[in-house]
């Protein structure tokens, strides 16, 4: 039987006059921390509540500077450390924002005194976070590179919010990204009416970031063709964009604080190599796949409960079901099991982010069609979908894994046995 583990002391939900529930900000981080500790240790026998409070949001996904406004404010008000020009937080406080701390910070908001600890945003090597921050304080831009689903975009967004207070100066790189989207374009009605004037210039996210001294985020840079990527070379080295249509002297200058965080997946198909000239403008930081099982559990449960908070329902996650999920992902990722079994690795990227989606979908399924408890069968269903995706060959590899590994585990554990049976049935359909 799965051991039930205790959920966090959730923040109360207040019914406001207009009928909208508002979550008390205080105690938020403490709740998250105790969720992590209890879910991992399994010390308590009471049920594990993945999410209970309902966060009423106007945006499905507000930017970090909005969703974490209280923590950012608390760090700003307590920041006595040296900081680069135009940075909202010092490097030290930016690191605390990303890596989290139990230390409580007092802060004032609308004349009211409050305090908060700082929740962990990125789980992993602190050194890597520090190196990223140092790069952004230097002349070079930052390139976060690694497998899909390792939190590159997540880290980029949180770094930009911490450093600039704004994470939305954003270019999403695709095969269709044009030079205009990186530099500037024109409002054609104004262009026709008055010719090229500063008023007719439509600034890109790059120009907005340069003018305001903020961080520009360039997602999936290597999806753009090399010529398009190379627009960034002069921007990164000169910190200037010339606009010749407005005169040979017209230049948009980068204000101190401007820098760029780019991300790139090193495993995606169809990526374009970066030119040597562009590579030289970046410090590359490799974001590793999480290998540690306990750490991965922590991330998966924390992010799933964050996402479930929006839906506001209660779900039990037995400890052995969580353990099964993380074990299956780690096995499939590496093509070998903890007990030494080997099987053909599947082509789908079994990332932490995919794991979060599997757990979230299982939770939603369990809530609407199950017994408010995530069961092995829910995981089986969602794991098959996640693994097979568009490559039918993965199904054969998954069966191999079932026969080599899952079957032997099934003989000694009821949760593995249920998982084995459900997987077998679903994979033979
Ligand atoms: N080490 C980690 N710490 C915190 N969250 C993580 C970690 N690894 C993965 N995640 C979660 O995985 C999700 C996907 O991350 P994302 O930034 O989109 O990946 P990438 O850009 O590398 O493809 C995010 O919700 C993030 O919270
Ligand atoms: Mg990404």
Layout: helices, strands, pairs:
Elements: E1 13-15, E2 21-23, H1 28-41, H2 64-67, H3 69-77, H4 91-99, E3 101-109, E4 112-118, H5 126-137, E5 141-146, H6 152-164, E6 170-172, H7 179-182, E7 184-186, H8 188-194, E8 201-203, H9 205-212, E9 215-219, H10 226-229, H11 231-238, E10 240-242, E11 251-253, E12 259-265, H12 276-279, E13 282-287, H13 293-309, H14 319-334, H15 352-369, H16 376-388, H17 393-410, H18 414-427
Parallel strand pairs: 5-12, 5-13, 6-9, 9-12
Antiparallel strand pairs: 1-2, 3-4, 7-8, 10-11
Helix pairs in contact: 1-13, 3-4, 4-5, 4-6, 13-14, 13-15, 15-16, 16-18, 17-18
The structure holds adenosine-5'-diphosphate (ADP) and magnesium ion (MG).
């Amino acid at each position: 039987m799965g051991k039930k583990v205790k959920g966090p002391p959730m923040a109360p939900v207040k019914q406001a006059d207009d009928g909208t529930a508002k979550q008390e900000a205080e105690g938020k981080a403490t709740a998250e921390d105790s969720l992590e500790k209890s879910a991992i240790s399994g010390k308590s026998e009471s049920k594990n509540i993945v999410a209970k409070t309902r966060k009423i949001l106007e945006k499905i996904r507000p930017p970090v500077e909005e969703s974490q406004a209280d923590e950012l404010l608390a760090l700003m008000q307590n920041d006595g450390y040296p900081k680069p020009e135009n940075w909202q937080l010092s490097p030290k406080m930016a690191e605390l924002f990303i890596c989290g701390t139990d230390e409580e910070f007092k802060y004032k908001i609308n004349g009211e005194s409050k305090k908060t600890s700082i929740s962990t945003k990125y789980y992993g090597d602190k050194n890597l976070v520090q190196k990223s921050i140092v790069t952004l304080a230097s002349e070079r831009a930052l390139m976060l590179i690694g497998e899909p689903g390792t939190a590159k975009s997540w880290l980029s967004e949180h770094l930009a919010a911490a450093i600039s207070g704004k994470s939305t100066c954003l270019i999403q790189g695709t095969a269709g990204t044009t030079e205009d989207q990186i530099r500037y374009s024109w409002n054609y009605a104004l262009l026709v009416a008055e010719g090229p004037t500063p008023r007719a210039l439509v600034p890109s996210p790059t120009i907005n970031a340069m003018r305001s001294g903020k961080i520009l985020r360039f997602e999936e840079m290597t999806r753009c063709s090399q010529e398009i990527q190379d627009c960034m070379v002069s921007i990164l080295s000169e910190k200037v964009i010339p606009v010749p249509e407005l005169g040979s002297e017209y230049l948009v200058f980068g204000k101190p604080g401007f820098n760029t965080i780019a991300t790139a997946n090193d495993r995606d198909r169809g990526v374009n190599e970066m030119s040597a000239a562009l590579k030289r403008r970046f410090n590359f930081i490799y974001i590793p796949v999480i290998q540690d099982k306990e750490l991965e559990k922590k991330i998966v449960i924390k992010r799933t409960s964050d996402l479930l908070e929006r839906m506001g329902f209660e779900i039990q996650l037995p400890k052995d079901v969580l353990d099964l999920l993380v074990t299956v992902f780690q096995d499939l990722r590496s093509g070998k099991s903890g007990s030494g079994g080997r099987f053909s690795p599947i082509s789908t990227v079994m990332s932490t982010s995919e794991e979060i989606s599997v757990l979230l979908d299982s939770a939603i399924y369990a809530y609407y069609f199950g017994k408010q408890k995530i069961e092995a069968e829910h995981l089986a269903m969602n794991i098959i979908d996640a693994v097979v995706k568009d490559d039918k060959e993965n199904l054969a590899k998954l069966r191999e894994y079932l026969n080599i590994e899952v079957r032997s585990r099934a003989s000694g554990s009821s949760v593995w046995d249920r998982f084995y049976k459900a997987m077998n049935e679903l994979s033979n359909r």
